[in-house]
Amino acid sequence: MLCESTASPLFETREGSRTYRGLRVHVRELSIAGHAFRIASLNDAAELLDHPDYAQPFLERDIAPYGLELWPISVLLAEQILTGEDGAEREALDLGCGLGLTAMAATLRGWRVFAGDHEPTSLRFARFNAEQNGVEVAAFEHFDWHQPSCDARFARVFAADVLYQKVDHAPILKCLAAVLSSDGIAMLADPCRGVADRFGELASEAGWSVEARIGHAPNFFGEKPIDGRIFLLRRR
Fold this sequence. Notes:
Blueprint: E1 12-14, E2 17-20, E3 23-32, E4 35-42, H1 52-61, H2 73-82, E5 91-95, H3 101-108, E6 112-117, H4 120-132, E7 139-142, E8 154-160, H5 169-179, E9 180-190, H6 199-205, E10 208-217, E11 226-235
Parallel strand pairs: 5-6, 5-8, 6-7, 8-9
Antiparallel strand pairs: 1-2, 2-3, 3-4, 9-11, 10-11
């Protein structure tokens, strides 16, 4: 049973169900590489666009609040992190942290994680999920890959399902160039979206060494797994 601090409640309870702005909060239980997670999310965050006070920033940029939904490819990235190398307290950035699953997985693997997202509500959900799972993520902070605002250099940058808009590919690569350490590695997971097919080529043209690893993510709404890939970017 998920509990919540009464100091600054994120959710309301209506008719026995937890809600956020009138939308039911779904809690999904996951088992990833031997670790159990309970993730609070919204099934259809686009319904938040019916709230004028909340929707305005998203309508101005012609996007939806995607970070409040649990995207299957984040499970693939979390699995890769949990079965990968020990972070040994090195610093990592979870770029577009969404609900915080990647940040939690990396923290459990020994990374000191800076969970960044441009959307304040995503950060609140991510912090809530980390607290409810007993995972002490180092920091949750506003971070926009169009205008990276920190001077830190990270040994790893993790990102799940951030390549869904072609217009973001160049800014993401520019952001990685600004925040990744000289010997660092960026791991960007994508569910083989057509819009991201050329991302590897674009990264290579920008001077990155690129490797693509193929994997499968769970399908929350069907039996057939979802094809996925993880782009590994290193400086040449």
